[in-house]
Specification:
250 residues, mainly alpha, 2 domains, 40% helix
Length: 250
């Protein structure tokens, strides 16, 4: 969108002191932009889900966005990523299916710590993540993001190829962690889903918990009843999206 052009007469009329350069005609507009108050992010809300419920939401969203229902192999890949990003559903925040940063289409956002990078380059930062009012809203935005911004990854998911899916996500800047660890986690969960059903991707089945050490050093006791799921989610989320050009991320 082309920014508006303001005539000099609209700018504040400031008479310069002797020897002082006159103010820029657009100084008032620039100052107004600098002083514009950005909307604040809210506090995160834990929204745990069973893997079978997440699968149903993603399936419905995929059908809505793509125009056809996903195959079981496709859905296994997508549910496996959801499982990795949410601790098997136990640490899901505000119905965010993929650890997506920025603001949702409805303008909602929450802030919490996250881990970016891997190994010696891993670091903890506080960032804003998209928040949604329902599982279906979050699932639709997740699938639409893949469809619009990561089409190569979605094509690999459509082919039932977890390794190709992760490689395309990494190439597109979706996450900053180890590609090998991310691939191993999603591939393992997808195989379990194909063999035992979608609830095999849930936290109670141990999905993703055995991979936490290689995915940023987070706690591995996701299935423990007294686990601090909020803190677990903070460390788990490796999908540090690098989509600065997306208006929803501003």
């Amino acid at each position: 969108m082309t920014p508006p052009v303001y005539a000099a007469g609209i700018a504040p009329s400031l008479k310069p002191s002797p020897g002082e350069a006159p103010p820029s005609p657009t100084a008032g507009f620039a100052q107004a932009l600098a002083n514009r108050e950005a909307p604040e992010s809210g506090s995160p809300t834990l929204t745990p889900m069973r893997a079978s419920d997440a699968a149903a939401a993603i399936s419905n969203a995929y059908t809505s966005v793509v125009g056809m229902p996903p195959s079981k192999a496709t859905l296994a890949v997508l549910v496996s990523q959801w499982s990795l990003e949410t601790g098997g559903g136990r640490a899901m925040m505000d119905y965010n299916f993929g650890g997506i940063k920025g603001r949702s289409p409805g303008g909602q956002s929450v802030s919490y710590p996250t881990t970016e990078g891997a190994g010696d380059e891993a670091r903890s930062v506080v960032d804003s993540f998209r928040a949604y009012g329902s599982a279906q809203e979050g699932a639709v935005d997740y699938v639409r993001l893949l469809h619009d911004r990561f089409p190569n990854a979605l094509a690999q998911a459509r082919a039932g190829n977890p390794a190709g899916f992760v490689h395309a996500l990494k190439a597109g800047g979706y996450f900053t962690g180890s590609e090998k660890a991310y691939t191993d986690a999603i591939s393992s969960t997808a195989r379990r889903v194909i063999g035992s059903g979608f609830d095999a991707a849930g936290a109670l089945a141990g999905a993703s918990s055995s991979w936490l050490g290689s995915l940023g050093g987070a706690s591995s006791d996701v299935a423990t009843p007294d686990v601090d799921v909020a803190a677990f989610s903070y460390q788990l989320d490796l999908a540090a999206l690098k989509i600065g050009s997306d208006p929803n991320d501003r």
